[in-house]
Design a protein that fits this description.
Elements: E1 16-17, H1 19-26, H2 31-46, H3 52-64, H4 69-81, E2 86-87
Antiparallel strand pairs: 1-2
Helix pairs in contact: 1-4, 2-3
Length: 101
């Protein structure tokens, strides 16, 4: 009976996230927050600055639910652009954000 190795959808078994994988891990669970941020910014441009409260609310709600992925996304994405290797949380659940080697 052959065993089939499962391929990780975020890193393709490289244990290292690309920009696409970083967006999938850090932004996909909060698609509604990103959408509310965009709505708040667009409506603030069209109507007035009062609409920016949607953006603030969308940023604070995931933090209130103790999920820091939305807060960490810019740091991980910029770090990956600068050459650091982001760890895949699916393949390495006990590791940190960055790979050592």
């Amino acid at each position: 009976m052959p065993t089939e190795e499962r391929i990780c959808s975020h890193c393709r078994n490289s244990k290292r996230l690309s920009q696409r994988g970083i967006a999938a891990v850090y932004l996909k669970p909060h698609w509604w927050a990103v959408l509310l941020m965009l709505v708040g910014v667009v409506m603030a441009i069209l109507s007035g600055a009062g609409w920016l409260w949607f953006s603030v609310l969308a940023y604070v709600l995931p933090l209130a639910m103790a999920d820091l992925r939305l807060l960490l996304y810019p740091w991980v994405a910029i770090g990956a652009l600068m050459g650091r290797k982001a760890n895949c949380p699916i393949c390495e659940p006990s590791g940190g954000v960055w790979r050592r080697f």
